[in-house]
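Reply to thread "Modeling small-molecule complexes from scratch"

Following up on the discussion above, here's a worked example others can learn from. I took a protein sequence and the SMILES for fe (ii) ion and predicted the complex. Inputs first:
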Amino acid sequence: MAEGGCTRQRVIIRSTPPVLLALLNLTIGGRRVAYGSTGAHYTKIVAMDRNFSKIDRLIASIDEALRITTGEAPAPFRQNPAGDITSAELDEQQRRHAAGLMRINHTGEICAQALYAGQAATAHHDATREAMQSAAEEEIDHLSWCEERLKELDSRPSVLNPLWYAGSFAIGAAAGIAGDDWSLGFVKETENQVEAHLEDHLEKLPAGDARSQAILDQMKADEAKHAEMAEDAGARDLPEPIRRAMTFTANIMKSLAYRV
Ligand SMILES: [Fe+2]
Ligand SMILES: [Fe+2]
C-alpha cells in the first residue's frame, strides 16, 4: 500500500519494566499481542494496525536515532553466540587490538541500523519497508553482541557513532528515494562487503579470542542471509563507481572507529 496509507507495522518494546507493560496492555487491549520474558525485564512484541503518517515516521526515526547512538543497545532477540565460550588470556596489546576491531564492528552495526531506518523511511512499497525493518531487527542482535564484547574487553563504542548514524541515515534515505530495486541493490552490496570484511576480521582477531570469533561467525552468516533476502526481493546490481565509493567510505569509518 502507498506511503501514508493504513500500514501494518510491528512495534517492538524492549526491556520494558513490568509496570509499564501493564499500562501498555490497557492502552492497546484488543489488539494482537505476544510477549516473553528476558531476565529481569520483559521483551514485548506488539503487532497492530494503525496509520503512520510521514510525521509519525520522522518522529519514530529521530527517537530510534537517539536511542541507538546515545544509550545502551536494545535487548537482543537471540542469545549471544559467545555463550559460555572462554577466550584465552589476552595481553594488553591483544586486548586493545580486539577492542579496536570490535569497535569497528559495533560502528558498522550502528550504520546498518541507520541505513535500514533511512531506507524504510523512504521505501516506495510496504513489502520493502517491512523487509528493511525485519532485517534491522536482526542487526539489533549484532549491535548488542558487539557492545557486550566491547564491555568484556574493557572498552567502549566509538565516540563518532552519532555522526556515522546521521550520514548513514541520509545515504539510506537517498537509496530509498532512488527506488526499491536500487535500495535493495544497496542492501545486497553492503551486506556482501560486510561479509567480506568480517572474514578479514576473523583472521585479524587474536587467535585466542574465541568469544569475539563466535560473535563474528554468527554475524557473517546473518549478513550473507540479508544479502540473499535483498537478491530474492529484486535487488539491482549497483554501478561500479558507487560500489567503489561505498568501499572508500567504509574504509574511512574503519580506520577512525579502530582508534576512537
Ligand atoms: Fe549486522
Ligand atoms: Fe546485515
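What I'd highlight from this example: Residues 54-259 form a domain with the Ferritin fold (CATH 1.20.1260.10). The first strand starts at residue 6 and ends at 16. Questions welcome below.
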